[in-house]
Amino acid sequence: MESAEYHSALAALAWQIELGADECIADTPVDRYAVPAAVAKPVAPDSPGKVAVAPMPVQDRFDPVAVAQEAADAAQTLDELRTALGAFQHCELKRGARNLVFSDGVAGARVMIVGEAPGRDEDMQGKPFVGRAGQLLDKMLAAIGLSRGENVYITNVLPWRPPQNRDPKPEEIAMMQPFLNRHIALAAPDVLMVMGNHSCQALLGKRGITRLRGDWTQAQGRQALPMFHPAYLLRNPAAKREAWADLLSLQARLRDG
Q1: Mind listing the domains of the chain with CATH numbers?
Q2: Closest by alpha carbon to 193, among 151, 234, 235?
Q3: Which DSSP category does 193 fall into?
Q4: E strand or H helix at 243, and its extent?
Q5: Under a CB-based contact definition with an 8 Å cutoff, are residues 96 and 173 in contact?
Q6: Residues 6+ apart with CB under 8 A from 237
Q7: φ and ψ at 70, to 5 degrees?
Q8: Rounded to whole angstroms, what are the CA distances from 136 to 48, 70, 75, 116?
Q9: Phi and psi dihedrals of 217, rounded to 5?
Q10: How far apart are CA 116 and CA 231, in angstroms?
Q11: Dihedrals φ, ψ of 140, to 5°?
């Protein structure tokens, strides 16, 4: 069977497997969100030639973002938020990660850095920005009198490392967004440093860091400064000039405000 119908069916099956389907439950597909309360009207079991059909309940649509929102809203402290995040079971990234990467630095600091996602070193140590990019970040902060040990608080959009350090997927960002929003609210910084495209997508709803960087804006009701991610600066050293200008802008904002 090498017809176009065969190849179309094979492609449809591959697509369903990619979405996570792993079990066949009927000879023909059924949209469980669209079925009525009963698949067929029950008939009397004594009707000649008829078989009684039991009503089939409609399954509720599962929304992991709503579950995340409920868990995040219930957290009243950063420790409670860390516990809630660690107990969240609906993000596939957790299955392949070694550690939850929650935060580093001084909670309650005026400056909060929001990165994108943990890498290999972060996954191993359970802290954000501890690899080569983190070492560069520490040097950048020190140049304007800041440090994670004294006056900076750090987190990421995603708390678990994506496989092979791939980019975060939109659905992963959306799932973790309630936790990030609550994290910012509980840490209560004056200023957010939004580092990288995916952080800008999560907090500003925009991408294009080369266009966004350096322009002060608002995120979660706070002053926010989009900046190049240190990992980008390692790949593109020429961009360090713009990064330095952004650091000076941050220094001036902290001094004046």
Answers
A1: 64-256 (3.40.470.10)
A2: 151
A3: E
A4: helix 240-256
A5: no
A6: none
A7: -65, -45
A8: 80, 36, 33, 16
A9: -145, -165
A10: 10
A11: -65, -45
Q: Which residues of 169-182 are buried (b: 16+ CB within 10 A; e: fewer)?
A: eeebbebbbbbbbb
Strand, coil or helix: 191: strand
Residue 157 near residue 116 (C-beta atoms within 8 A): yes
Question: What's the token pair of residue 11?
Answer: 């492609």
Relative to beta strand 191-195, strand 222-227 is: parallel
Asked if 150 contacts 111 with a C-beta cutoff of 8 angstroms, the reply is: no
Q: At 6, give phi and psi (nearest 5°).
A: -60, -45
Closest among 133, 121, 107, 251 to 193, alpha carbons compared: 251
Contacts of 176 (CB under 8 A, 6+ apart): 68, 91, 157, 158, 159
Question: What is the pLDDT tens value at each position of the chain, 257 positions in all?
Answer: 445 566 566 666 666 666 666 666 656 665 655 545 444 444 455 555 555 555 555 445 779 999 999 999 999 999 999 999 999 999 999 999 999 999 999 999 999 999 999 999 999 999 999 999 999 999 999 999 999 999 999 999 999 999 999 999 999 999 999 999 999 999 999 999 999 999 999 999 999 999 999 999 999 999 999 999 999 999 999 999 999 999 999 999 999 87
Q: Which residue has the tokens 């490392």?
A: 161
- Tokens 């966004």 identify what position? 212
| Residue closest to 81 by CA, chosen among 65, 95, 102, 96 | 102
